[in-house]
Amino acid sequence: MTQSFADRHIGPDGAGFAHILAEIGIASAGDLAAAALPAGILDTYPPAGDADPLAGLPRAASEHEVLAELAALAATNTVATSMIGLGYYDTLTPPVLVRNLLENPAWYTAYTPYQPEISQGRLEALLNFQTMVTDLTGMDVANASMLDEATAAAEAMTLMHRVGRGRGTRLVVDRDLFPQTRTVLTTRAEPLGIEIVEADLAGDGLPDGEFFGVLLQVPGASGRVVNWTDVIVQAHERGALVAAGADLLALTLITPPGEQGADICFGTTQRFGVPMGFGGPHAGYLAVRTAQARQLPGRLVGVSKDADGAPAYRLALQTREQHIRREKATSNICTAQVLLAIVAGMYACYHGADGLRAIARRVHGHAEQLAAALGEALVHDKYFDTVLARVPGHAESVVAKAAARGINLRLVDDDHVAVACDEATTGDHITAVLDAFGVAPGESRGTGIADRTSEFLTHPAFIRYHTETAMLRYLRALSDKDIALDRSMIPLGSCTMKLNATAEMEPITWPGFARLHPYAPAGDVPGLRRVIDDLERWLGEITGYDSVSLQPNAGSQGEYAGLLAIRRYHLDRGDTGRDTCLIPSSAHGTNAASAAMAGLRVEVVKCRANGDVDLDDLRAKIADHADRLACIMITYPSTHGVYEHEIAELCALVHDAGGQVYVDGANLNALVGLARPGRFGGDVSHLNLHKTFCIPHGGGGPGVGPVAVRSHLASYLPGDPLIADSHAVSAANYGSASILPITWAYIRMMGADGLRRATLTAIASANYLARRLGAHFPVLYTGAGGMVAHECILDLREITKRTGVTVDDVAKRLADYGFHAPTMSFPVAGTLMVEPTESEDLTELDEFAEAMIAIRREIDHVAAGKWPVDDNPLRNAPHTAECLVGDWDYPYSREVAVYPRGVAHTRAKVWPAVRRIDGAFGDRNLVCTCPPLDAYSD
């Protein structure tokens, strides 16, 4: 019998699933759904015919059928030569990076490096990225990527506002800023009470009055290159900080903003080998002076040392800080764009400084050819890659003539056309563009912009790997230092590390999806628009909502967009006082951070001892804030891993008080096909396509966080970022559009029955592990009948109190057993949150359970005094191959250290790259770029 895709996606086969159900005392899948979920929210199960709530989804198709369908859709897209610019450029991704990085599951199935000892490869790659950014911008510290350029600009704005406290609420923005960046800035500024003042800073200088910051673009949207040194000096004299959006390729030739005195640089690394992809995903960047390093939002990789004194990398300072500081967090960012940042960093490693300069000179040379031919039509005489031409009354004609030659130019207005050159531009393209303008080639006059004198990318990482052989081996050596899904189950609770099928991944590098500019003419992209339209409809069917926007390019941005919709809904109804957001104490920290960004006041609702929201406290909070209640944010199933049976009553209480219900979709993998938040009380939800719908985590990004709403909120969804005041939350209308085919393929191949099976299997597997491990590590929260949802929390607090063995010890020891650890100390300190997903088969579930049980026996040895509390295999874990060859002074054998289940055990051995890392040392001695060896020695 031929297996369906669902049979290959879902780990346990029929016999395995039956064994799991028997172990948890459930007779059938139907009984499992009835036992786990509240009857009041459960859709008819099993569904019959038209009663199926997912009847609107297409039938399940095979992998080959879906690939053929996507190929046909891609073929309907016109892959024109894009010379539109505005921060998006064609680029030539080195094939060695395509095959061995973008298409390599060792890289794209990894998770955020919260266990740094088994993440040294991607951490080193991110350190390369940070070094590349600081070198090119002339700044001191860069983070490990942002979501895109526009959101990076918004983070720069709020950073300046925090640092410049007391300098007023006005931000001065140069008129030549990218329009999509200006729109996102406006969206972010309004709820925070920030006033944006636009000015022609190059022509008129700084405006009068007080302001906390200035925001510039280098080069500008028009292509103009300006030396901003004088403006920056004047801004500093008036107490303001300056942030510059800077094109990294241009900075190989022109004086970087950091050397001109800027305090912050932001931008995108898209043109460093990352395809345009109709808008994303791309790695934005944010770089600051050392003085602002501890205010820097997002993730930051730093250098430290391990237990043996060897250099080691880990996330520094802000690791998960939005979960800890909640509404006081510097940002709501939870994911970044790690996979794309690594591509950009490796592009720089592969080309090196000389290679990047050569690419930049070729790009600029083509722009010079255009400028020379345009003559008096040229608007600016200083430019890098983009020239602006004045053609009174003929702009549309020029653009049309170029389009007829297969080239898309940018129509600025009736009288102006902009032409952007990039790495893929050829002499033939220049000839075709000149034909469209009706001008002959001219003699280049030169612009004199090549004025950068400082060196960059001098670290060996940017010198050693210029041949394909060297790069191939470097990528392999780094990936060998990591644990990703290609090597092991990753049982991270709240993260849903499930199979990212090859058939889902294959289309993302096809030119028909990858080489589309986000502002290409609508007629060029019918195939991708079909994918987008289908997904919006299918996700609406699955969630029970009426409208969906795919624009948010991370779950945090989906949260933010949903809360903005609620806020604008209340304002339009005249409820200007509704500014309070109720959030249970169990919620994701991003919820509170997002609410604060949306201009809402956070009030925390207590939870009961069993983890459920305390409805008595909710009633009291509603009474206290009745006239001010905007909404409640609730994660369902809860962050504690249970289905709260009073969810319908909770929603009704908030609705009766005039508030809206935001259902955080982070745990939707436990609902798909069984219950729909838009039908059991939710007004708005965001979804994590990088969790439930198979977009891979990529080491910490990309993610996609669509926002879904009921009909009364549909008009408040984010709009086109090229339209001012459209409330856009990212730079591209459809966010990270090039990876949407992954989710499209997943839903298309699974069909309604497959999606439902996946949910039931995830629930069953979580309950199976809870039963197997509960006798060894108490399960903290359970719902009705002792059931958990799709994850369970193992409580180690009493064990730690009695033995001194901590969750960190267990997590690090799991690496010696060949496993990635579950989520540590979230949402409850001193616990481990385990989520097996539906993709792990019974053998892998049992292997993980046996490893955890073996670790419990090791804990018992410590408790019995066989091993000292401060010197045992758990406290000293993980163990490297190198530690075996020196003196061995531990009270246990080398074999126990590295083969805890015996050398004959069949599971492949994973060798951690470093011993336990001293994070505090790294924070005290902050080094966030590729360092010389003596930079992190004692």
Automatic annotation (TrEMBL):
The modification N6-(pyridoxal phosphate)lysine is found at residue 691. One of its GO terms (molecular function) is pyridoxal phosphate binding. One of its GO terms (biological process) is glycine decarboxylation via glycine cleavage system. It holds the Pfam family GDC-P. Its EC number is 1.4.4.2. Residues 7-437, 601-719 form the Glycine cleavage system P-protein N-terminal domain. GO terms for cellular component: cytosol; glycine cleavage complex. Its cofactor is pyridoxal 5'-phosphate. It catalyses: N(6)-[(R)-lipoyl]-L-lysyl-[glycine-cleavage complex H protein] + glycine + H(+) = N(6)-[(R)-S(8)-aminomethyldihydrolipoyl]-L-lysyl-[glycine-cleavage complex H protein] + CO2. It is an enzyme of class 1 (oxidoreductase). Keywords: Oxidoreductase, Pyridoxal phosphate. The keyword Oxidoreductase applies. Residues 758-879 form the Glycine dehydrogenase C-terminal domain. Belongs to the GcvP family. The glycine cleavage system is composed of four proteins: P, T, L and H. The glycine cleavage system catalyzes the degradation of glycine. The P protein binds the alpha-amino group of glycine through its pyridoxal phosphate cofactor; CO(2) is released and the remaining methylamine moiety is then transferred to the lipoamide cofactor of the H protein. This is Glycine dehydrogenase (decarboxylating). It comes from Nocardia speluncae.
